[in-house]
Design brief:
Layout (H helix, E strand, L loop, with lengths): L11 H23 L6 H66 L5 H7 L3 H71 L4 H23 L6 E3 L5 E3 L8 H11 L18 H11 L8 H4 L4 E3 L9 E4 L4 E7 L2 E4 L8 E4 L6 E6 L1
Antiparallel strand pairs: 1-2, 3-8, 4-5, 4-8, 5-6, 6-7
Length: about 350
């Protein structure tokens, strides 16, 4: 009769290892099943466009802080120079007062009546006494001038210190917005890096073709009086009216910069951001406008979209972007990092806000 042995049971340690391995495999399979798919090119572009918009908002705030910083620095420097010159004047007045005091001391320390009695020449003494009275009057006048100058200097020093304090706060705001803009741009670049080189090249080519189309449409402007907006509605552009002399000159100046690269906080002539280009263009035309979109929007007469003339400033995306109207529903602008000054359809830039005529 053969013997029957019980099959050897797996050890508890081995069971534990096998169970853990199986669980890990299930977890990995589950994670793989639920992992976020790689974003498509269009999704990346949408996210990148959003980050560029946020970076542009921060850049315009930085531009405003920079403009304010430059203004405050000039005011502080002027006040400090005024304080220095005032101190020199005060020192001169003090020197004059010292000279008067010395002259008064040298006239003698005796009582005037005693000096008169002892004088061998009373007429000469009386002349000296009159001169002494004049010295006293000059001394009193000098004291009044010194006191007034001291009060003025104290006020000027206070004003200068106030400007310096404000300057420090503005510099802090400037640095914060610079960092914020840099952070947004870095995030946008990180997203772009998830695309293949071919996909990035395709995006750049699409941008180039869109710019060429806009330039061609602008060149062929004439009969077209309406265009579809991004929402699909028909926008009446009205008859294309000639630009004002100022607007035409600004647009022509900007046209000479087509192809120049976008540069954050750039004001030309090597690179531009959006408001830097418009400021530069109008400066070439002989008009000084402020530095940022947030202030440029208040520097001209508000214009209905149907009444746009070439050279008018057109604002998009909650005033964070500006370009020059170029006719036939196109603008000339500096779009965003990685691009260049170019013509573009208003329908592809962003949400139209308003326009002003300088």
């Amino acid at each position: 009769m053969g013997s029957h042995r019980r099959p050897k049971q797996p050890s508890r340690a081995r069971v534990t290892v096998l169970t853990a391995t199986a669980a890990a495999a299930v977890a990995l399979t589950s994670q793989a099943a639920h992992a976020d798919p790689k974003p498509t090119k269009s999704e990346v572009k949408a996210k990148v466009d959003k980050l560029y918009h946020e970076a542009e908002v921060a850049t315009e705030k930085a531009n405003g802080a920079k403009e304010q910083q430059d203004k405050l620095k000039k005011q502080a420097d002027a006040l400090q120079d005024k304080v220095a010159r005032g101190q020199d004047e005060l020192n001169t007045l003090r020197g004059q007062l010292g000279s008067l005091a010395t002259a008064q001391y040298r006239s003698g320390g005796l009582d005037p009546s005693v000096q008169l009695l002892l004088s061998s020449d009373p007429d000469s003494f009386l002349d000296q006494a009159s001169a002494l009275d004049q010295l006293s009057a000059k001394q009193a006048d000098s004291l009044e001038k010194i006191q007034a100058k001291q009060r003025a200097l104290a006020q000027q020093r206070k004003e200068a210190q106030g400007k310096l304090t404000a300057l420090a706060e503005v510099r802090e705001t400037l640095n914060e917005n610079k960092k914020k803009s840099q952070g947004k741009l870095a995030a946008a670049q990180k997203l772009l890096n998830t695309l293949t080189a071919a996909e990035r090249a395709k995006m750049a080519e699409d941008d180039r073709r869109a710019a060429n189309r806009a330039a061609g449409e602008r060149a062929g402007a004439g009969n077209k009086t309406s265009s579809s907006s991004s929402s699909g509605e028909q926008v009446d552009l009205g008859n294309e009216v000639p630009a004002s002399a100022l607007g035409a000159a600004a647009l022509q100046a900007a046209h000479t910069q087509v192809g120049k690269p976008y540069g954050r906080m750039g004001t030309g002539p090597s690179s531009y951001d959006c408001s830097g280009l418009t400021q530069w263009a109008y400066a070439q035309a002989g008009a000084q406008i402020t530095r940022t979109t947030f202030t440029q929007i208040n520097q001209g007469t508000r214009i209905a979209r149907s009444q746009l003339k070439p050279g008018d400033l057109v604002f998009f995306s909650n005033t964070s972007h500006v370009g020059l109207y170029a006719g036939n529903n196109t603008v000339l602008h500096a779009p965003y990092p990685g691009t260049y000054v170019r013509y573009e359809s208003m329908n592809t830039i962003g949400a139209y806000q308003t326009a002003v005529r300088i």
